[in-house]
Automatic annotation (TrEMBL):
This is Uncharacterized protein. The keyword Membrane applies. Residues 279-300 are annotated as: Disordered. Pfam families: YndJ. Residues 289-300 have a biased composition (Pro residues). The chain crosses the membrane at residues 6-24, 56-75, 95-115, 127-150, 162-180, 186-204, 216-238, 250-273. It comes from Streptomyces lavendulae subsp. lavendulae.
Amino acid sequence: MTVLVNLIVALGAVCAVPLGLRLIDPVGLRRAARLWPLAAVPGALCLWLPRGPAATALALLYAAAALALAATAGARLRQGLAGTRPGGRRLPDPAGAAVLTALVSPSVAATALVAERAGYPLFGFDLDVLALTVPHFHFAGFTAALVAGLVCRSSGTRPARWAAYSVPAGTLLVLLGYFVDDWAELLGAVVLTTGMWAVALVTWRDLRPAARDRTTAALLGVSAAVLVAAMLLALWWAAGEATGIVHPTLTWMAATHGLGNALGFALCSLLAWRRLTAPPVPSSSSAPPVAPAPAPAPRP
């Protein structure tokens, strides 16, 4: 399980986060996306070293970058609230809330990574739990929240708005469940799963048929189908932990839920949205048309 989890974490840190940053704000976060591998590669390398000072030092480099990214979320939130009219809404819109969650999530993952590499049971958690927290907040935290925000901004339907609020809420509830009990974690899993299924529904029903080419449509279709199955496994595992019913082991979950979320959902979704937001390539047989502006990324 350790090797598989390490590979999933590396995929999230080195590939998913910089891809996602370019989708959030291709101009404002361009420098962060370009420089991110300088911290993400040490963060991935530290997983293959024995626990100790060297691994911890590399993890701290990644944590510094993740905390700086979280600070941009605070700045965006303050800007959004400053622009609110007196008596108007004081909270981010659904897509904005999802993006804020995405920007903060790598800092949670990086904190767990530093503690695990140092061999320190942060908040009393077992080191295996800390190790699994790292991929969880790269994919259920960063990627899932980001995709929910993109889906909400693109569709605007009731299921899309529900997803943009419930995915961040479910992620937070799962985190709080770590500190409370298995039943609280099950509640978070239920909220997160329904939100992710809403993402899958809107992606399959609305976005996939409207895709500009077959490759994009295929990527969206795969991401939606895998998401339904992967979140069903997550719900089964959480229900088993709370009630004692037979449920998959953590090793089996890493090989199915974890790998499916990383490759089938996260990577396919990010590649599809990169294609969706890119201007179409003009045909060489005709005069080049004016390229439309990319679809706006969700902002708080």
